[in-house]
Amino acid sequence: MPNPDPCLPPVSGPLAALPATGAPERIDLGSLSTRCQTVGPEHAARLARELWGLSGDITRLDTEKDDTFALRQQDRKLIFKIANPAEPPAELDLQIQTLAHLNRHAPDLPVPQIVPALNGAALVALPLADGVRHARMMTYLEGDLLDTLPPLGPEQYRIGEMNAKLRLAMTDFRHPFAARQLAWDIRHLPRLAELLDHVPDQSQRSALTRAFRQILSLRDDIEALPRQILHNDFSRSNLLVDRRKAQPITGIIDFGDVVETAVAIDLSTAMLNQLPRDAAEQGQDGMFAGPTRLFEGHIAHAPLSKAERRLLPHLVFARVVTRALLTLWRAGQFPENRAYILRNTAQGWAQLDWYLSQNPAALSARLL
Questions:
Q1: Percentage helix, strand, coil, to 5, in the chain?
Q2: Which CATH architecture has domain 145-364?
Q3: Domain 41-140, CATH
Q4: Which of 58, 70, 95, 124 lies deepest, with the highest CB count within 10 Å?
Q5: Closest CA to 189 of 319, 91, 102, 308
């Protein structure tokens, strides 16, 4: 059953260690806090057949909060998504219209295409046991998940280029739901303060609180950054590659976090996902080499102001803090999906230690 109160529970504790800037409002975690009953492959296959007229072999894919399937036919593959019951139609329409805009205005960008149902609708309401859920069908993009491969320097530069091209293609896109408040948008990190109390390890909680305080001091500067509608999760988990090709990036997927946010925040999320995950990835280049290569690829196509450049390193680690807070809390709420939820969290502690060891002023000047 859906969580009747998707907002954060009232807690105290680490909040006492934060600056007295006024208590931020809680943020509604919506579908991140809502449990849904699993739709089995047989049921999904029947829905795809009845509503889309499509049949084939169907396989469940691991996801964070919904039911997602790969539907394989003789000549093509499709993605069939049944949304979490807490995802409103307007949120899903935002994703659908984003893809439609990109397919019209930037057809060279490798993003999915929506496949309409038999009645012509892009989104179909399904009255299921846990409430009305909405389904959509998309084309399947081929390639290896970048998250499963070791990083390559030239590829990191190309990822920055692709991020810039996506940003530019979305500059004139508008949607009434894009101003939504999204927990994964680090503009709203102050409103996640109460999740500090859900970090069980005392040393980790202390590190997160220190970083939280440092980033909170930049809140006014972050709020002043230029904004537009952006992907907001340009991560290694959402990029497909084929390294046999001259242009190895074959897919940009998962537009579930699309939101109007700061351009620098979107770029910082992409940069975060090029931080080394372990000593082998870090090599001799250091912690920030991969993100810097991505940054250089981005600014080769799209400019950034000095104010954006100064904040970028801090925004990268604001996302590390956000990821830790949300995933540790959600792992406690959904222990059956703990492995998937926490798949990228462990690497963040060394990244956070590095951030806290840096001189803030020197870090701000790093990309000028």
A1: 45, 15, 40
A2: Alpha-Beta Complex (3.90)
A3: 3.30.200.20
A4: 95
A5: 319
